[in-house]
Amino acid sequence: MSDAVQQIETRGAESTYHLLTLDIDGTFVNSKKEVTPAVRDAVRGLVQRKFAVTFATGRMFEAVRPWAMDLGLQTPLICNNGADIVEPGSGRRVASRPLGHEAVAWLLDHGREQDLTTILFCGPRVLGWRHTTDDWLIERNRELVEAVPIEVLGAATLTVEKLLYLDRHHPERLEAMRDRLNEVARTRGRPFVAQISEPGILNFSHPEATKPHALVTLCRILGITPAQVIAIGDGDNDAAILAAAGLGIAMGNATPQARAAARIQVPDNDHDGVAVAIQDIILPLLGEGGLKSPGPSS
């Protein structure tokens, strides 16, 4: 047994793990947005042993479904940073927590005032009021922007799972904006939370549309607890789920916030950190008793 495994504290009966959640960008894929053979094989190996694996990602469902199908995932996926929980086979949303219209309208106005590329995620559609070079930040993630009139974006009937500000050339200004807008949300009662999901991408979602909130809901569906979950991630938007899970594992390229929330660190996403986590940490922890994928609770 590795030193890393020996350092993990035993949690009694709940130390048997039943679910692995994987972030995608910065974790499952490398810096070229590719899945390496080592990572694919390691994840497939878990799935083939009937252990539940899912994604917990900021990406929309339609962008990650091909990977879910390729890996044979059957557990509902946490998408749009926690705003959606979606069955991988049928595409049915089993839970959703969209932004309120008031928050969307305010953020749209603020984005235009700051001359920021502003993108809305609405089910299978990714909408903006114009195309810019910033679109590359998400289009490389299989999320293609459709330009529509600004009146469409502000329609009260539009269901918006998340809203993004993009700044490809000056990503550092979004960090200060995140802190300022979270303070605005707290002091002025604006129903949103702002998080950096990747450099140059500031993500806004409902305060309860986060990865840890979605994890609690998913665990209830599966009939397990967060203490029976292993989570792997790298970003600020992963920190809370790494802390909430029974075992949080940070990638070597993780942000300081994510590293602080995790209990173990593995190599970065350009050195097959997910494969190392599965082979050297997860499989030794599971043993034969932890390899049963729980069914839905009655």
Short recap of the structure:
37% of the residues lie in helices and 19% in strands. The chain is α/β, with parallel strands linked by helices and 298 residues long.
Detailed description of the structure:
The protein contains twelve helices and 14 strands. 37% of the residues lie in helices and 19% in strands. It folds into two domains: 3-96 and 210-286, Rossmann fold; 101-205, Hypothetical Protein, Haloacid Dehalogenase-like Hydrolase, Chain: A, domain 2. Strand 4 (84-86) and strand 5 (93-96) form a beta hairpin. A six-stranded mixed beta sheet has the order 8-7-6-9-11-10, with helices on one face. A five-stranded parallel beta sheet has the order 2-1-12-13-14. Strands 3-4-5 form a three-stranded antiparallel beta sheet, with helices on one face.
Strand composition percent: 15-25%
Provide a count of the helices.
Answer: 12
Structural class: alpha/beta
Which residues form runs of ≥5 with pLDDT under 50? 9-14, 288-298
Oligomer: single chain
Number of self-contained structural domains: 2
The CATH superfamily of the largest domain is HAD superfamily/HAD-like
CATH architecture of the largest domain: 3-Layer(aba) Sandwich
Largest sheet: 6 strands, mixed
Shape: globular
Write down the CATH topology of the largest domain: Rossmann fold
* End-to-end gap: 37 Å
Overall strand count: 14
